[in-house]
Amino acid sequence: MAFSSSLAFPFPSPPSGTFRSRPTRRFRAGTAGRFLACSSPPPPSDVVVTRERGKNAKLIAALEKHNIQSLELPLIKHVDGPDTDRLPDVLRNDKFDWIIITSPEAATVFLKGWKTAGSPKVRVAVVGAGTARVFDEVSQLDHQSLEVAFSPSKAMGKVLASELPRGSESTCKVLYPASAKASREIQEGLSDRGFYVTRLNTYTTVPVEDVEPLTLKLAISAPVVAVASPSALKAWLKLIPKVNNWDNSIACIGETTGSAAKKLGLKSVYYPTTPGLEGWVESILEALRVHKQLKEAPKC
């Protein structure tokens, strides 16, 4: 497992007990993105998990196996994109050699439109094991209509664009249902290889801005913030009054998000060479190990 880290500043030391298991905190949900404490203030946490509400459970459970305490602070939420309603009609009226799906959210949105279109026969290429799992139930129930037929050697969009198989046809047609904020890397890479690409922006992300002050204070003091997208990174930076005053660690799900973190000026960035939950957990553990070493190092 390879990690990328640039340690320009020492980490501030959180209260003792960083690696001990602690009692579970209880929150009740208020308005979107708001967490309200039900009783006494929760203890400090090791890691802030930031995916959309309801999508952090697997990461939290994986970290609990290492006695790592998490604070859930969703930073983004998914909403319909400008082409959401067009997707069923496009699937009904045209035939594609490949459907390109690059995230679990893109898969969920696509499946909804695909079912509305009457479940036409499609061949899907996915990026990442997490994305593939979204299709597991459907492909098992109706493998004649939906086939997950390709994933790249590395779970990255640019690798998929370079490795997607072409048929013998002079024109190979691809449908790419994507986030409105996704780059043009995939469609341009495929177009350069002679594929004809139709992109639909079927969803987008917006930042969660209404965060309870105590929750934000606890999040800022945590040694590690775990993020799964550049959008979540940008949302986090908007919540921090001054980025130069926050120098704890960012643990990213993969290289794309890790590279974005560096470009945004973050100094302590960890990410696995292969995106996915297992590598993400290892990145978080590495960030915590470094934090503990710095905390315990003799002061000059």
Automatic annotation (TrEMBL):
Keywords carried by this UniProt record: Lyase, Porphyrin biosynthesis
Natural source organism: Urochloa decumbens
Gene Ontology molecular function terms on file: uroporphyrinogen-III synthase activity
Chain intervals with Low complexity compositional bias: 1-10
Signal peptide range in chain numbering: none
Family listed: Belongs to the uroporphyrinogen-III synthase family.
GO biological process: protoporphyrinogen IX biosynthetic process; uroporphyrinogen III biosynthetic process
Keyword Lyase recorded: yes
Reactions that this protein is recorded to catalyse: hydroxymethylbilane = uroporphyrinogen III + H2O
Protein's name according to its UniProt entry: Uroporphyrinogen-III synthase
CDD domains (alphabetical): HemD
EC number: 4.2.1.75
Region entry Disordered, spans: 1-23
Annotated pathway: Porphyrin-containing compound metabolism; protoporphyrin-IX biosynthesis; coproporphyrinogen-III from 5-aminolevulinate: step 3/4
Function: Catalyzes cyclization of the linear tetrapyrrole, hydroxymethylbilane, to the macrocyclic uroporphyrinogen III.
Domain Tetrapyrrole biosynthesis uroporphyrinogen III synthase: 58-282
